[in-house]
Each structure stands twice: as C-alpha cells, then as structure tokens.
Design brief:
- This protein is mainly beta.
- The chain has two domains: about 10-105, 3-Layer(aba) Sandwich (Udp-n-acetylmuramoylalanyl-d-glutamate--2,6- Diaminopimelate Ligase, Chain: A, domain 1), CATH 3.40.1390.10; about 115-325, Hexapeptide repeat proteins (UDP N-Acetylglucosamine Acyltransferase, domain 1), CATH 2.160.10.
- It is built from four helices and 37 strands.
- The longest helix has 12 residues, at about 90-100.
- The protein is globular and about 60 Å long.
- About 40% of the residues are buried.
- The mean pLDDT is about 95.
Length: about 325
C-alpha cells in the first residue's frame, strides 16, 4: 500500500467499478477482485492502474496490473492479460475509483484529534516549545526537538535525532533519522490535483505520503505535498533552501542541493547529486538525471541526461547558453 495511514475499503469487484464510472453493459471478468490502486510501475496482479499518456508506454508494456483504466487508442500498449476499462477521461475515472478505495483521502480539514503535547506520552520524551499539538497515530523517536506553535497532525512517524522548527504543520509523513524541518513549513498536506468538469473542479484523492530520508534538511517556509497515487520522496542528505515548493509524487534523490524559491511541478523525478540554483522551475512528469547542475532562474521543460549543466528558459546546455548571451 502506498499510504499506510489511509484506510483501504477494498477489495472491489469490476461490477462496482463499472457502476462508479457510469459504464453500462461492460464486458468484464467477474472473477477479478481489486485490492488497491497503483501506478503502472508499482501495480501488482491484485491492483488497478491507469494509462493516460504515451509518455508512460514503456511502463504500460510491462505493468503487472490486473486492470487498467485507459483509452481506445492506448489500450493496445497494455499486456493481453491486463483487463482494460475504456473511458474518455482516464484521470477523472481514476480519481473516482481511488475515492471509493480511499474515501478519507479527499479532504484535508484540520485535525481535531490533536492534544497539547504535555498531555501525551511524549511529554517526557521530547524537548518542546510552547503550544505544541500532537495528533493520533504519531510516533516520535529519541532526542527530538519540536519548536513553538507547531502541529504534528495525525499519521506521522518521526525518527531519532530530528528537529522540527516553530510554526510548522506535518501530517501523512514519515521522517527518517537526523532530519531537520525548519520554521514555517507545511509537509504532507494534499497536492494541487483536480480536473475541470462541467464548470466544477473534480478533486483527485491524494493517497500517498511524504517520505524524507536520513540527514536531510527542509528550509523555512517550504511546502511538500504528499503523493497522489505514488509517494513524494526526498532522498538522503538532501538540502532544501527556504521557500521551496515540491508538488505531489516528486522524487528527489540523495545528496541534492536546491536553492531558494525553486518550484517543482508534480511527478518529476530527480537523480542523485543534483544542484539547482534559486528561482528555477521544474515542469511536471520529467526525468532529471544524476550529477546535474541547473542554473538559477532556469525553466526546465524537458528531460535532462546525466552529467549535464543547463541554464536559461527553456533550459539548455550551459556552454550554449553562455555563447548566446555574451
């Protein structure tokens, strides 16, 4: 399961799924039961997945998903053993199925389970400031610090030797050991996922978590959205400067350094040892390789191969950028 915190209401049979999507007289295998939903790469033989873009063709060809929501044109790139549900709008249909499996993942209202830390089991275990609130299903390791006016909402696991600053909100998040979250951060809230539909916006449930690995640091005023279908991940020893936004499903590798006001759109993947200058923007669904340097103020709109140095908008090879801007 992508998120160990949200309750899964599976298994579902295909009749239930077809009904939720408004598909009548569907020709389906009545023996199939769906236990979870996952992306093409992660899906198991008990899961339903979705395939909406040729960008994910290589993953579609090898997916283990039992069932896949897709379109007429894309269905032929899926394995024969995979049951296809043909729809007009793959993402809205996927959102509807996700909402059935995880109804608690749609809204992100404030956590009314929180208590003053002095009234919890952590009062003698954690060094904390004033007005610190703790929700249910929270774990905190040894030698941790929590600053003033911070709320650790429900469904958070914090490892050993972690430091959480003041005026910070964390939920649906796992912090490993020696992680530092500085003042004014919001980590683990739902991402910006919705689709316009007949004058309304249809919300995509966000069932992932945020996972921050050992020895990483998140700068002041940064926001990290939890994943939608997969998780949002920050690798080991990765340092984020102040006022950085990381959207849902973004995965950042180990030993990365990211300067202030950088923004990441959803589902982009960064390798290890990536350095990004201030105010750069990374578009969604991109693959940024290992050992990359991206200049400040750059706009990255396509994949970048390993060991590259780029700058500008759109971002291009650094030598080419310098030549054009002499």
């Amino acid at each position: 399961m992508t998120n160990p915190f949200f309750k899964n209401y599976g298994p579902l049979n295909l009749k239930d799924i077809y009904k939720s999507l408004g598909i009548k007289n569907g020709n389906y295998n009545k023996k199939i039961k769906i236990f979870d939903i996952a992306d093409l790469k992660s899906a198991s033989s008990k899961d339903i997945s979705f395939f909406h873009s040729n960008k994910y063709k290589s993953q579609a060809l090898t997916t283990k998903a039992a069932v896949c929501i897709t379109t007429k044109n894309l269905q032929y790139d899926l394995p024969d053993r995979c049951e296809k549900i043909i729809v007009e709008n793959v993402l809205i249909s996927t959102a509807k199925v996700t909402e059935i499996l995880y109804p608690g993942s749609v809204n992100d209202d404030f956590d009314n389970s929180v208590k003053e830390i002095s009234k919890t089991k952590f009062k003698k275990k954690v060094k904390f400031g004033k007005n610190v609130l703790i929700g249910t299903n929270v774990k905190i390791g040894k030698n941790c610090l929590i600053g003033h006016n911070t709320i650790i909402e429900k469904n958070v696991s914090i490892g050993d030797n972690c430091s959480i600053g003041s005026n910070t909100v964390i939920r649906n998040t796992i912090l490993k050991n020696h992680v530092k979250i500085l003042d004014g951060c919001v980590v683990g809230k739902k991402g910006f996922g919705f689709f316009p539909k007949r004058g309304n916006n249809y919300r995509f449930p966000q069932i992932g978590i945020v996972l921050i690995d050992d020895y990483s640091e998140i700068g002041c005023g940064s926001t990290i959205d939890r994943g939608s279908i997969s998780n949002t991940v920050i690798g080991k020893n990765t340092y984020l400067d102040n006022q950085i936004h990381i959207a849902h499903n973004v995965k950042i590798g180990d030993n990365c350094i990211i300067a202030g006001q950088v923004g990441f759109a959803g589902s982009s993947v960064l390798g290890d040892n990536v350095t990004i200058g201030g105010q750069a923007g990374i578009s969604g669904h991109l693959k940024i390789g290992n050992n990359i340097k991206i200049g400040g103020g750059s706009g990255v709109i396509k994949d970048i191969q390993d060991n590259s140095r780029v700058m500008g908008y759109p971002a291009k090879d650094l030598k080419e950028f310098i030549k054009e801007n002499k």
